[in-house]
Amino acid sequence: MGLAFKNELHDEFGTRPVAYIPYGGADLGEILAVGRAVGDGGDLAFHEAWIAAGDRLAAQAREAERRGLRESASESFLRASAFYATSYRPFYGAPADPRLVAAFRKQIAAFNNGLALSRFPVVPLRVPFEGTSMPAYLIPARGQETEVRSLIILTNGYDATVTDMYFASAVAASRRGYHCLVFDGPGQGEMLYEQDMRLRPDWETVVRAVVDHVVELPVVDARRLVLSGWSLGGHLAPRAASGEHRLAACIADPGQWSLAGQFRQFALKFGVAPQDAASLAELGQPVLDRLTQIASSDPTLRWKIVQRGFWVHGVGNLRDYLRAIEPFTMDDRAEEISCPTLMTLAEHDPLAGGTQSFFDRLRCPKELLRFTAAEGAGDHCETANRSLLNRRVLDWLDGVLGSGGR
């Protein structure tokens, strides 16, 4: 997107809160100011600049709370949570960096404070799951907090957390009259940082546990459950819908058939023969060594594959990573999706290359929404015009469910 960060990877991380501007997660001036504070600095400077900005907002929130200004306190705490969440992405990697864990805890504390001080207080939930529990929040429909309404379950991707999904989708849906549930599943947020629980391909198992929990909530219409995923969630949500049939609709932003398919394109780009790329985990060692060197020498690839990918999947080398991502696929599953399904396709989203093909293979009621650079919405997950994405998605959902969240 390119706003104020001189380092390309910092710019990718630091401009994410642009998507949250319409929903109270940041303002443009604040993002630009952090960029100036980072200047030519490295990862530590990036981290410290975002932490300092978050601390300033948290201090303002505490002062507003002391003065009885609950609305201002809530808004400032919530904004601080988004700043803390942005601070630690350069520190991804196993074992969990103490600075990442400390910032994450500040993030969640600010998020909890902000939601508790909101006009209709939100309290954290825990979803039981395989001997532990997943963190979750029920964000009520604005103005219909106690009414029985549709629920949108929002699922994240590789490195976003509950606060990111709150600003990216939940606020807009709540304003439209939908209850929303945000949660961190295995390999995401608390489940990775604090519980060391890694990402898993059978997302239908994860979502089944969430659905089992939410159908017992008194304000949830169990006949109108929606699952929506962004980024990697654009694969996880359809995967879950293929095995969890209590869903009334599914949204994938963007739709993604598999993880290995994305790496396959990377391998082909760097000269791996098509016949070899067909079975990534069986690549010859010289080819694997060359791909490892390429991934390790480029800062962006190193972060995405080595720091994030290895950590999230619980592996220590490229071959094991390739073996780990192969099961993340819709092979023999796409035809099992029965609920109405919406997919998005942004013009320059690198993860949307296979969306049209995936969409064409669906046998359920379906719709594809395209977003363009001319609209300012052509990048990954429509970050620079997230409000357009939310309007169009919620318009579709209103049509599928009839009359908004009622």
Tell me what the structure shows:
The protein folds into 3 domains: 1-119, Up-down Bundle (de novo design (two linked rop proteins)), CATH 1.20.1440; 126-258 and 328-398, 3-Layer(aba) Sandwich (Rossmann fold); 260-325, no CATH class. 48% of the residues lie in helices and 13% in strands. It is built from 16 helices and 8 strands. The protein has helices spanning 8-14, 28-38, 43-66, 70-87, 98-116, 162-176, 189-193, 203-214, 233-241, 260-269, 274-277, 285-297, 299-313, 318-325, 355-361, 386-401; strands at residues 124-129, 132-139, 149-155, 179-183, 220-230, 249-253, 341-346, 366-371. Strands 1-2-4-3-5-6-7-8 form an 8-stranded mixed sheet, with helices on both faces. Helix 15 (355-361) links the parallel strand 7 and strand 8. Helix 8 (203-214) crosses helix 9 (233-241). The chain is globular and about 65 Å long. The two termini are 37 Å apart.
